């Protein structure tokens, strides 16, 4: 960018450039993770577009925000996040390199760091799970945390150069509803305390034979992995179920010229489904390699929710509404599709296994665990990003997580378990958005709303808005309500036995 993004014509040039940048990143992501290209060459893309995210660009966009209200707010956030990303890129790459290369010996055999979590989830022997977890924590504390501590300091310095006292202040200025969400999280934790203890105790006993009060953190991934339901969710039925579900909503997946379904088997393809919105709305990639089981079905439907959202976004909208904006919206559409898989009414229509109500009950217990964990994680991030003393944050992390999950966390995860850009707030708000929207759809179109063409028409209309509005505004337009985590309480309690 040679010219200053201040006047409207230069803002347009900035938008165009940013659009090309994001398209290039998404294309590279697609090629690499679809197994079509070994290298993941993002460095040269960052290099090519580096003028978008200079300190100077951030300052100019900030003055555009200050002079014309909120019109350039999303561009300014984009520039600042890019600036902070540039500042910390070497260090995040170093952390990724360490994570990819570190190994540790457990029971006389070397295990790569990144295999430790899956190994814990797949390990039936409890004592060995503990040894794997202790090895993971030791590596995290000794090898990774020094880097994470440097990263936190660099983010702090970058935020100061942007003219803000703390990362939290910066995001308040980006109009993230942090304070309000914090209040909702505390309330959610209070409201669900008893139901959570009862439901997770029941789930943990059923899956591992361990009561909640005896559960250790190395048991949790195993509980979440161990599923008697794998046979009910076969790999070869995934795509037909998706095609059929979309057809019920009036969407012909095969006829969508802008949706590219990548289902080819490739050795280096990501085993988890993903969506790469290379051009929004013109070229959206939905990439899958079906392996079956509830987790894989959830992932496919989640990514299909993103895909249909992006594929229906109106091409006339500016970059801010197509690619930027409130991510609680796209995560909300993804969650709407993902949680269909837990709905006994949907299961009855698309799958054939006994006891779908039991499956829904277990899924609700797991969701409650996840939302409580994220509520605590978000409350922790609020404190962390107010720049309290890092030494105190280890114990705060443990206190908040222990209170939410009733399982002793490890203090070593106090920095690794942090989402940049308060993305945890987008997930939390997306789960509320999903719960409220689903309640509305059921009221309007009946319990089997997902089989009604009218519901599909409404979804397409809402998808076409992209992320022009904040999730609260969009929800308000449809249901007259703002985002409220309490809706998650109602939805999960209905599913729990
Ligand atoms: Zn998502």
Explained architecture:
The chain has 497 residues and is mainly alpha-helical. The chain folds into two domains: 1-101; 180-495, Neurolysin, domain 3 (Orthogonal Bundle), CATH 1.10.1370.30. Helices cover 64% and strands 5% of the residues. The protein has helices at residues 8-33, 43-48, 55-68, 73-101, 113-122, 126-161, 167-173, 178-208, 220-225, 238-248, 294-312, 319-322, 327-340, 344-350, 356-384, 390-405, 423-445, 453-463, 471-479, 486-495; strands at residues 103-106, 109-112, 259-262, 274-279, 283-287. A three-stranded mixed β-sheet has the order 3-5-4. It has a two-stranded antiparallel sheet with strand order 1-2. α4 (73-101) crosses α6 (126-161) and α17 (423-445) packs parallel to α19 (471-479). The longest helix is centred in the first third of the chain and has 36 residues, at 126-161. The protein is globular and about 65 Å long. The protein starts with 7 loop residues before the first helix and ends with a helix. The structure holds zinc ion. The site of zinc ion (ZN) has 4 residues, from α11 and α13.
